[in-house]
Amino acid sequence: MTAHLKIDFVSDIACPWCIIGLRALEEALARAADALDAEIVFQPFELNPAMPAGGQNIGEHIAEKYGSTPEQSAANRAMIVDRARDLGFTMAMTETSRIYNTFDAHRLLHWAQIEGGQAALKHALFTANLTDNVDPGDHRVLVDAAAKAGLDPVAAEEVLRS
């Protein structure tokens, strides 16, 4: 008998630890697939709601938010990149990376849940932001991620215009 489990995964695509946690969860669920049928539903958590358009340099942001030195920030980024790689995710964080506002990404993820493509969009947005280092607040980036996730790009544009 297979048990069913609904998992609410509260996260932000700006958070590198969130993709690490998601990938680790997905691997664990794959190992338990014979005994467990799990549904992951993504819930929004906007880490930086006051982040302006264009974002902020990651080093500056981490220094302001946590008081980290440039050396601490670099060491933490290296550790995060290594952990992500161990879980099959390519993370391209460098000292020139930026932290962006993700409000519209969360709006699109809500729509994608209704359309049945939330998980695919979540992964596409993590890749756009943390691998490709593009601004997930840019509507062109969001529409492209929706298309890569198999969602209707025209409908995604309409959601973002609303």
Which percent bin holds the helix content? 40-55%
Q: Which spans of ≥5 residues are poorly predicted at pLDDT below 50? A: none
Order of helices and strands: EHEEHHEHHHH
By DSSP (H or I, 4+ residues per run), the number of helices equals: 7
Write the layout of secondary structure elements.
Layout: E1 3-11, H1 16-31, E2 36-44, E3 56-57, H2 58-66, H3 70-86, E4 98-99, H4 103-115, H5 118-131, H6 139-148, H7 153-161
Parallel strand pairs: 1-2
Antiparallel strand pairs: 3-4
Give an overview of the whole structure.
By secondary structure, this protein is α+β, with helices and mostly antiparallel strands. Helices cover 54% and strands 14% of the residues. The chain is built from 7 helices and 4 strands. The strands form 2 sheets. The protein has a two-stranded parallel ribbon. A two-stranded antiparallel ribbon has the order 3-4. Strand 1 (3-11), helix 1 (16-31) and strand 2 form a beta-alpha-beta unit. Helix 4 (103-115) packs antiparallel against helix 5. The mean pLDDT is 95.
Task: Give a short summary of the structure.
This protein is α+β, with helices and mostly antiparallel strands.
Which properties best describe this structure?
162 residues, alpha+beta, two-stranded parallel ribbon, 7 helices, 4 strands, 14% strand
